[in-house]
Design a protein that fits this description.
There is one protein chain. This protein is of the alpha/beta class. The chain contains six helices and eleven strands. A seven-stranded mixed beta sheet has the order 7-6-8-9-3-10-11, sandwiched between helices.
Length: 207
């Protein structure tokens, strides 16, 4: 069985300008997710979460490294078929788009018709009328169909943590451009950086 997602030596470096190559931000990631799963991801604003999602979907060009979705390098796939491998929903479930100056005729085909990796970037959870339950059921449905689901949350209310704890099987924490992968919710909360980030939300949860 082909590994669903391989992020290999991935790096994105931003510089001050075209003329100044002084780095202003660097994201680095290296991880593998072999099987269908729901992965919770969080981190402070500006830490690199959205950049990571853009690199995974091929809408951002890496400085180094590669992203393989079911064995295919997504940055070598036709731009009009990349969302058949990995699709990025930003906030109000808007799909992220991208451009390329290399003709698609020179690129590989996706080889599949429906996205393998679904990345939800800080979705807006409506707390009324069962909407959260509907979305969680949708995430579980995708996972049950053999998909990989990323759920990025910037917790500012207690129920955001409850959602991560209830539905996610693996976790990632992004801070200062560094991506840390952990196997469980308990392991996530043991990280000093996560506890400092969550602050009073942890006290509220324990109360």
């Amino acid at each position: 069985m082909t590994t669903i997602l391989e992020v290999k030596g991935l790096e994105k470096v931003y510089t001050a300008s075209l003329f100044s190559r002084v780095p202003t931000f660097r994201l680095a990631a290296d991880f593998t997710i072999s099987n269908p799963a729901i992965v919770g991801l969080m981190g402070p604003n500006g830490s690199g979460k959205t950049t990571l999602f853009e690199l995974i979907t091929g809408s951002n060009v890496p400085t180094n490294g590669e992203v393989l979705v079911q064995g295919r390098n997504i940055h070598k796939v036709r731009t009009d078929e990349r969302d058949r491998l990995a699709i990025h929903y930003h906030q109000s479930y808007q799909v992220r788009h991208f451009r390329s100056f290399i003709p698609n005729v020179l690129r590989q085909r996706a080889g599949v018709d429906y996205p393998i990796v679904h990345l939800f970037d800080e979705p807006q959870f409506n707390t009324q009328d069962g909407y959260i339950g509907f979305m969680l059921d949708f995430f579980r449905k995708l996972r049950g169909e053999g998909r990989l689901v990323f759920l990025c949350v910037h917790p500012n209310e207690r129920f955001h943590l409850d959602i991560l704890e209830e539905i996610c099987e693996q976790f990632m924490f992004v801070q200062y451009g560094s991506v840390t992968k952990v196997p469980s919710y308990e392991a996530l909360l043991e990280l000093p950086t996560v506890r400092a980030y969550l602050g009073d939300l942890l006290e509220e949860k324990a109360a």
